[in-house]
Amino acid sequence: MDRWQAMRIFVKVAETESFTDTARQMHLSAPVVTRAVAMLEDTIGVRLLTRTTRSVKLTEAGSRYVGDCERLLGQLAEAEAAAAGAHAKPNGILTVTAPIMFGQMHVLPILTEYLDLYPAVTGRSLFVDRIVNIVDEGVDVAFRIGHLDDSTLTAVRVGEVKRILCGSPEYFDKNGVPAMPRDLSKHRIIGTTSAWSSLEWRFGVHPKSTVHVTPRLYCNTNEAAIAAAVKGWGIARVLSYQVAPLLRSGELRAIMSNSEEEALPVHVVHPEGRSTSGKVRSFVDLAVASLRSGKNRF
Fold first, then answer.
1. At a CB cut-off of 8 Å and minimum separation 6, what does 51 contact?
2. What is the distance between the alpha carbons of residues 221 and 191, in angstroms, rounded to a whole number?
3. How far apart are CA 102 and CA 15, in angstroms?
4. Considering the chain, what is the average pLDDT of its residues?
5. Distances from the Cα of 229 to the Cαs of 212, 233, 259, in angstroms?
6. Contact, 197 vs 130, CB < 8 A?
7. Weakest-pLDDT range from 5-9, 194-198, 215-219
8. How far apart are CA 158 and CA 119, in angstroms?
């Protein structure tokens, strides 16, 4: 008998504590189940089960061995799924999450390109400014900005972004350009009330400094804060990718670049495992290549 099949039978006997129930559930004859366990015991050289007329119990050696069998059988299933998935045509629903503006600006174009390549896949975007629990919320791939906590998730770094101060050229022509963080007290500040906002603005790397700001305008979205800055109302602090097109067009101007904090990494994150589905594997490959190519400037 195949060793893997014998291990499967042994694990089921340990679970049911019955040769008869194991035979019925696995659609085998009782003698086949008995021979499978006997073969393992002969091969290993120890008794795995204690049999009585009424019950079947694991021995001490059997208790250790059943855990090893479950681990090996799980790894075998993963390897088989990975081999099948590597050649399977992507299909089903693909759910991706990202911060709102990053998702709209950089993830959505990749997702639509992917859907054009794989017509059997349906895309679902979840763009929110909070950390989404991938497992609990049924998400396949996440785009994360910032340093990651240790986890069992697989993360691929694709770039970095910075927190920058910016305003319109018209604002700076009229009010002057602050040269140092402490000069911000003399200017109109546009603040945000999003989940990650703070009135303690940090600057520099070594050494670091912190300035408490008092905004005269609070916006509940980054888009609104940026729009106010474009209109020349004041100075906003945002992530570089959020205003990159406006900086290139000259509608906004970045200031105090020598006082910027350390850059924040951008990662593509998905659940770990060799059994990663074909749709996730192929989407991650496309996203990583696209974001690293320079087409998406952060």
1. none
2. 10
3. 49
4. 89
5. 20, 6, 20
6. no
7. 194-198
8. 26
Q: Which two tokens stand for residue 145?
A: 């900005």
Last residue of a domain, one of 52, 87, 122: 87
| Residues 193, 218: Cα–Cα separation, whole Å | 7
Of 34, 66, 87, which residue is a domain's last? Answer: 87
Quote the CA–CA distance of 123 and 280 in Å, as a whole number.
11
Residue-number span of the structural domain to which 176 is assigned: 163-259
Concatenate the DSSP letters of all residues of 52-76 into one string.
-SS-EEE-HHHHHHHHHHHHHHHHH
- N residues, the chain: 298
278 occurs within a structural domain: yes
Which pTM value belongs to this model?
A: 0.67
Q: What token pair was written down for 21? A: 């129930």
Q: Is 123 exposed, middle or buried (0-12, 13-18, 19+ CB in 10 A)?
A: middle
pLDDT per residue as tens digits for the range 37-46: 999 999 999 9
Q: State which H helix or E strand residue 203 sits in.
A: strand 200-203
Contact between 272 and 153 under an 8 Å Cβ cutoff? The reply is yes
* 183 vs 188: CA distance, rounded Å: 11
3-state secondary structure of 119: coil
Residue 262 region, left (φ>0) first, then alpha (ψ -120 to 50), else beta?
A: beta
Q: Which residue is listed with tokens 């009135």? A: 199
**Has residue 298 been placed in a domain?**
no
- Token pair of 4, please? 């893997």
Give residue 77's pLDDT: 77
Do 170 and 155 lie in a common domain?
no
Please write the tens of the pLDDT for every residue from 174-190: 999 999 999 999 999 99
Residues 6+ apart with CB under 8 A from 298: 106, 159, 160, 161, 240, 241, 244, 266
Per-residue pLDDT reduced to its tens digit, 140-196: 999 999 988 867 788 999 999 999 999 999 999 999 999 999 999 999 999 988 766
Q: 131, 147, 165: which is closest to 243 by C-alpha?
A: 165
